[in-house]
Structure formats: structure tokens, C-alpha cells
Write a structure and sequence with these properties.
The protein has 217 residues and is an alpha+beta fold. It is built from 6 helices and 9 strands, in the order H-H-H-H-H-H-E-E-E-E-E-E-E-E-E.
């Protein structure tokens, strides 16, 4: 059960590979309880994304720090700081710097003296999956604003706002890693509409369908 929840959180955060996402979608179809938990989390994410956000007052952090109790400094510590302050501290810092320089020089000499032929190893970074730019279009001539919300942007309604084109068509380009993604169009910040031209569909838990797209390299 804990593994399912971990996979669910990674699924919503878009951290699964295409193979893992497809396997998890099949897992949800076979487990109604897991599907119900997924739908509840998606609902909560949508509610949070639509809720107005309040900013903390500018002096919030300063006021909180003032109210925190200050730890008393022990007498022994205060006495030590008083005695070591000034000339003694400067002498210790100078000594430390000189000692550091000697140690570095000694290390270089020893390394050069005993170092054998060096084998040059070419370290190549791990090959990463190439991101793919996809273009989504939606016909809504009466809309004032259209955005795309999905699991690739944690269902945020303002993350990918579409541009209005000629003829009432809205479009947006999104760069995604290869995988399977669920999404919906959000019209004027209120109406959630399924893409009628989607590759496939999935129940969203609210009596409607999420559009599903598969991004391939």
C-alpha cells in the first residue's frame, strides 16, 4: 500500500517514465481504492490551484524572529570570547593561514614525487531523455482566456496559458519528456473542458474525462 502511494505521488508530480506511467494506470484500473485516492488528490490540487493565495506581510519574518526566545549565553562562553578577542585571535588566524599554506605546498610536492603515469578516463554524462515540444490547439472563439492544466504542471490553471490565433483557435507549445500525460483545457478560469482531439481519454473522478496524450521521441 505504501509503494502504491509513493507511485501515486510520483505519478502526480510527473516523475514516472512512460513505462511506469502506463503500468500505474493499469494498476489504478484494477484497484478502485487507489483510483479513489488518486481522484481525491487531483480534486484537492484543483481546489488549491483555484483558491486565492494570500501573501505574508513584509515584516512577518522579522516579527516572528523577535518573538523567539533568546538562548542565554553561559558565563564561561562569554569569558572565553572576552579573553580570546583581539590580539590573541589575530595571532591564531595568522598561524592558521601559514600552517595551511605549508600543508598545501607539502601535499603538492609529495603528489608530484610519487605520482605515476596518469590514466585519463573520459567521463561521459548519463544520457538523458530528450525533451519534446508538443503543440496543443483548441477552438473556443467566445473565450477570453484558455489555459492547459495537467499532471505535467500539477494542474495549475495559470502555468500554461494559450495564445489566441486567427479564427478563434487557441494554441500553446509545451516542452515535455517522453511519457503519458493527462490534461484538460480551462476556459476563462472556470470551465474544465476535455480536448475533443485527444489521443485517448481517462475518467477524471468528476463525471467527465481527462484527455490523455503520449509524448514520444
Amino acid at each position: 500500500m505504501r509503494d502504491d502511494r509513493d507511485m501515486l505521488h510520483k505519478f502526480l508530480d510527473g516523475e514516472l517514465t512512460e513505462t511506469e506511467r502506463e503500468a500505474f494506470l493499469r494498476r489504478m484500473e484494477d484497484d478502485p481504492a487507489l483510483k479513489k485516492e488518486h481522484d481525491a488528490l487531483v480534486s484537492a490540487l484543483r481546489m488549491v490551484s483555484k483558491s486565492p493565495r494570500k501573501s505574508a506581510p513584509p515584516a512577518f519574518t522579522r516579527d516572528v524572529m523577535k518573538r523567539l526566545p533568546r538562548r542565554p549565553v553561559p558565563y564561561v562562553v562569554r569569558l572565553r570570547d572576552f579573553l580570546l578577542r583581539g590580539r590573541v585571535l589575530r595571532w591564531n588566524m595568522a598561524t592558521a593561514l601559514a600552517l595551511s599554506a605549508v600543508l598545501v605546498l607539502t601535499s603538492v610536492i609529495i603528489t608530484n614525487q610519487y605520482r605515476g603515469p596518469a590514466d585519463v578516463a573520459l567521463v561521459r554524462p548519463a544520457q538523458q531523455e530528450a525533451a519534446v515540444t508538443v503543440r496543443l490547439n483548441f477552438y473556443a472563439p467566445q473565450a477570453k482566456q484558455v489555459a492547459v492544466a495537467g499532471d505535467f504542471n500539477k494542474w495549475q490553471v495559470n502555468a500554461h496559458v494559450m495564445d489566441r490565433q486567427a479564427g478563434g483557435v487557441w494554441s500553446v507549445e509545451i516542452t515535455l519528456k517522453p511519457g503519458v500525460y493527462s490534461y484538460m483545457f480551462v476556459v476563462d478560469g472556470k470551465a474544465w473542458i476535455t480536448d475533443p482531439e485527444a489521443e485517448s481519454f481517462q475518467d477524471d473522478g468528476f463525471g467527465s474525462k481527462n484527455a490523455v496524450m503520449r509524448v514520444r521521441t
